[in-house]
Amino acid sequence: MLGVEAIQTYYGESHILHGVSIRVGEGEAVALLGRNGAGKTTLIRSVAGFTPPREGRVVFGGRPVQAWPAYRIARRGLALVPQGRRIFSPLTVRENLTLGARPGEWTLERVYALFPRLGERALQPGGTLSGGEQQMLAIARALMTNGRMLVLDEPSEGLAPIIVREIGRIVRGLKGGRLSILLVEQNYHLALQVADRVYVMNKGQIVWEGTPAGLEADEDVKRRYLGVA
Ligand SMILES: Nc1ncnc2c1ncn2[C@@H]1O[C@H](COP(=O)(O)OP(=O)(O)OP(=O)(O)O)[C@@H](O)[C@H]1O
Ligand SMILES: [Mg+2]
Prior knowledge:
By secondary structure, the chain is of the alpha/beta class. Helix 3 packs parallel to helix 6. The two termini are 34 Å apart. Magnesium ion binds next to helix 1.
């Protein structure tokens, strides 16, 4: 579904990504782990068309998209849950959901069934929701675009453990269909619950890739790059 091939990404003169390559298969759930400033969001921005790579290729749904504008990549099926949620605070929950919606299996009824709190608060401004509810809204809004790949950038950030578990349960529930998932996280346990395969990033490079079980067993990688004891 997604192939990132040796990309080099810059912010102005700052060289952030140094030859990063990853793959996400159709229906596969892949986690990307790494500490603050590792380059995770920059990789997502490179894929989504917000900060195009200066070198290398991004192949999405069989097409090279690294020179495409973000709206066109989104329309091709990239459903993004951005870091910090970025919901539209003055708009109602329902307006947030319908603004970028496209026809497909995910409808208002279906997302309200998955997230009952959003149905109860459909006519409330998005900004009045709790942090956890806003994260649910950001996920639901991405689903409503009916894309082929869901990309979540640190959905657990700043949320209580009970809400993080709820998000883990929901993302796991989305697996198994045709939807591909790329989950960016600093929360090691959440990532391992969801992923079929894992990449670890450090200083703008992929430093490890393998299975959740392989990472679990690799004390050295966990300590060096993830700060997990
Ligand atoms: N707009 C920008 N201009 C210049 N440098 C930036 C910009 N955004 C990020 N950076 C730098 O790029 C590097 C990678 O940042 P990035 O946001 O991709 O990290 P991250 O892995 O997503 O971290 P976090 O887990 O904290 O979100 C950092 O050194 C950061 O300071
Ligand atoms: Mg980030």
